[in-house]
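Recall the central idea of this unit: under ordinary conditions, the amino acid sequence of a chain determines the structure it adopts. In this exercise we apply that idea directly, starting from the sequence alone.
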Amino acid sequence: MNTHDRALPGGTEAKIEYLDGDYRMLRYGTFVRCGVTGQPIAIDDLRYWSVERQEAYATPAAIMQRLAEKP
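Accordingly, the structure predicted from this sequence is:
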């Protein structure tokens, strides 16, 4: 167990295909991880993701951090 797993006790990490304005669950779970911070994001709270990068973001600040990185 790592420190992120403790944030959602009993939860399992989902595998998601991110689409334009929607997503498809490939493996059901209760959370995904932020592609920048590694922070768990409850599926009910999932609001931000990149179709191109196929990753979720916990906050708008995380999105901006990813966009500021060089490709």
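The longest strand covers residues 22-27.
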